[in-house]
Each structure stands twice: as structure tokens, then as C-alpha cells.
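Below is a concrete protein record.
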Amino acid sequence: MALQAGIVGLPNVGKSTLFNAVSNNAKAQASNYRFCTIEPNVGLVDVPDPRLYKLADLVHPHRVVPTQIEIVDIAGLVRGASKGEGLGNKFLANIREVDSIIQVVRCFEDDNILREEGPIDPVADKGVIDTELQLKDLEGVEKKIQRIEKMAKTGDAKLRVELEILKRSYDHLEKGKNIRELNLTKEEKQAIADLFLLTDKPVLYIANVDEVSMHTGNKFSDALKQAIKNEDSEMIIMNNSIEEQISSMESQDKELFMEEYKMQEPALDRLIHSAYRLLSLNTYFTAGEQEVRAWTIHQGWKAPQAAGVIHTDFEKGFIKAEVISYEDYVAYGSEAACRDAGKLRIEGKEYVVKDGDIMHFRFDV
């Protein structure tokens, strides 16, 4: 499964620069004018996971395949986007398709970079985007309320419950709040699932700061952190330009550059790990002579679902899974040694896959 994250924000906040930093197969044009990005750029980024390469050191496979995240660089949003201003309709349609939102917020001052919203104000910038997404969601919820109200007159109890949830959602949005803050249960969310509401998507905020503030943050990133404290979201402080430079370097140069800037790891790594946490994702591995590979699944998935990520036939014809924990594999050094030590387990259809499991599936179609 490919996680898709959309990079959004006002014009000239550093969206395309971030895209260039994270994408390993595409480079977006980054320019100092509105709507530089018109069609969304799409790139793939490898998910950094030291466990994958530790396994490769033990197995010596022909190839190593990390799991990947698809990053979409979406056009800058402006006030009135929900009513079609600028590239609003196209922008909002692109956001609707992604699994999570990476919202880039400008937290630096630079007179050379165009800004139409006045003085630097990350909280106000966040508010512009929130408002436009909320207005678009209100439109969708209102249309469904009108449709369900007519149908609910038949006395259908299920429809009346659905209508109540829709009205709660509408009232929440009308107060200027995002759906992800409404805390609907999994069952209640079924009433709005078909609307793919923009404000229900998990958000990772990127506070794009100046070089001096990349480790400590500044008054702008502090204000943003305070503004999102009640949200179920995360924030990363980074300098997008520095990250773009790092991404273009060879390994040795990259290490020297990071050492110069006192960086333990690229902020990109933290970004990807935060995206995983927000979407409640896990990784399991397959390890053999031909290939050591990482696979992405949702937390709580059972063995047949995990097998289906490799191929639908694996899920349809699932018989059993051979499972070794990552810790045991590393401790004993090989699958054979784990088997001899009784550390290889046979699990059935009800087994809930754990993060880091090394798995081999048996199936029959």
C-alpha cells in the first residue's frame, strides 16, 4: 500500500522546496510567484528504517527494497479557494485524494520572498487554510443533510442516526473547527466516510524556519505550536532549504554537511516517522536470498490482510504465516538459527501483525 501525503500551504511558504527535499524521483520547480505549482508534482520517498538494512546485512540478498511514501506537491491555496478563487477547486480536489496533509507554514522573515498576507503570522496563515477547508466541507455536509432529511422521513432509524451525526458535523464546522477534533467514533464516522472530508485528514505541520532557528525554533514556530496544542497532530521544525541541499548530496558529503550544521538526522526522517504515527501505520519485513523488503500496513491488521499487501492471492488463499520477531532474528542471525531455537512461530488468520515482524506466507489459490 502506498501512503499518499499532500504538501499544502499558502503561496511562497516553501512547499515545493520541501517537495524537492523529500522526493527521490522528481524535482518540482520552486519560484517566487503565485501558482508556480499548477498540476500537482508527485514523487516517491523511501521510508528510512535501519532495521531493513540490518536484516540485509544478515541475509545478503540480491536487492533491498524499502517501503515508500508518495508525496504530492499541491498548488498554493489563497483566500476564497473554497469558492473557486485562484486554483481553489483544483487544489481542494487534489487534497481530497490524499491520506494525510503536510501543511507547510512560513515561520521566517525574508523581504526577498513575496508575501501577500502582510506581516509574518503563522497562526493566521494556518487559519486561512483551515477556513477554506472547513467551508468546502460545510458545502459537502450540507448537501448530504438535505438528501438524508428527505429519506429519513420514511422513519428509517439508521438514517435518523446518520442525520444526527451529519448535523453535529455541520455545527462543528460552522464554529470554525475541524472534523478531526470532533472525536467521532469509528462507527459514527461511517456517516461521513463517503464525503472524504478535508478537515478529517490527519495533519503534520512543518514550521519552516530560518537557518538560525532550525534547532531551537523561534517566536513564529512557538506561536504555531501553541495554536495546535489541542489538535491530534504533530509539528516539525525545519529549514526547508537546508533539507533540499542535503537531499541532493552524496552520502559522504551529506554526513559532513550535517555535522557542520549539528544535525543528527535529516528532518525528512522525522517527517516520515511522524506521518506514520499520524496514520497508525506499521512495517513488517520479508527476508530471503532474492530480496529483503519492507511492507506498510495499518496497525491492527491481521496476517491475511498483511499478506494481501504483497498480492491479493496471498490474502484469498491464506493458509498460515511463519513469523519471527525482529529482535529474535537479529539475536540469532538467520532464519535457520531462529527455527532451530524455536523462535519461528506458525500463526493463523487471527494473528495481529506486530511492527517489525519478519514474515513468510503460505497460501493456496
The chain is about 40% helix and 20% strand.
